[in-house]
C-alpha cells in the first residue's frame, strides 16, 4: 500500500456518534431480512459493508435513510430516532445523501437541473444560489462542462459523479453508497472511486456497500461483513483481510479476491 493510502487511514474520527443501530430487525412479509443488527458509526468514519448477494446490505443502508422501515430495535441518525414521524424522516433525509448503483438521475432534466431540483424544492434555496452550489460540486467531481447536457449524453462514470454531486448539493452530513461502481465499465470505476476518496479525505461520514477491496484497504477505517441478514464480523481493513475470523468471511474473501 502506498504511503498516501496509509495516511488516509489516519483521517479524523470524532467521538460524536453519527449513526447508532441497536438490536434492529426487519422483515419483508414473513422473510426475516435483518437480524439483531448492532452498529455504531462515529462522525468521520468510513465504513465498507460487504457480503454475498442477498445478505441484506442494501436493506440495511436503505433503513438508515428510511427508504425501508425496520420493525424492531432502534436506529438513531444524527440524534434523530427513525420512527413513523414524518418530520423525523424529512430531517434525516436532508442530512443523509444516497448514491445508488444505477445513478437514478432524472433523464428529462439537465445535469444542472438534476443538481438544483431538491435544493430548490425541498430546501427552498433560491435558484441562483442553488445553481452556484451545483456548479461548485460539479467542478469538484470534475465535470462542470457537462452542466447543460442531459444524463443520457454522459458516460456511466460521469453520470455517477453527477449523482454524487447532486447528493452533495443537499449538504449532507452522512453519505450512503450502494454499490456505486458495480454498474460501471472497468475504465470508469477509478474516476468514481477517486471522487469518493476525496470526500473521505474531507472528513465525510461514509457507509459504502462495495466489493472494491482496494478502496476498502485504502479508505475504510472499518470493514463490516454481512451474511444472511447479520453482521458476521467487522474489523479494521488490514486485520479483516489478513486475518478473517469466521469461515463465512474466509469463503467470501476467497471468492472475490
Ligand atoms: P444485498 O444488497 O446484500 O444483495 P438486499 O438487501 O437487496 O441484499 O436483499 C436481502 C434479501 O431481501 C434478499 O433475499 C432479497 O431477495 C430480499 N428483498 C430485498 N428487497 C425486498 C423487497 N422489497 N421485498 C421482499 N424481499 C426483498
Ligand atoms: Mg444490494
Automatic annotation (TrEMBL):
Q: Which organism is it from?
A: Gemmobacter aquatilis
Protein name listed in UniProt: L-glutamine ABC transporter ATP-binding protein /L-glutamate ABC transporter ATP-binding protein /L-aspartate ABC transporter ATP-binding protein /L-asparagine ABC transporter ATP-binding protein
SUPFAM superfamilies cross-referenced by the UniProt entry = P-loop containing nucleoside triphosphate hydrolases
State one molecular function term (GO): ATP hydrolysis activity
**What family name appears in the similarity comment?**
Belongs to the ABC transporter superfamily.
A Pfam family (short name) is ABC_tran
Q: Which residues form the ABC transporter domain?
A: 19-253
- Does the entry feature the keyword Nucleotide-binding, yes or no? yes
Keywords attached to this Swiss-Prot or TrEMBL record, sorted alphabetically, are: ATP-binding, Nucleotide-binding, Transport
Signal peptide start-end: none
Q: Report which superkingdom the organism of origin falls in.
A: Bacteria
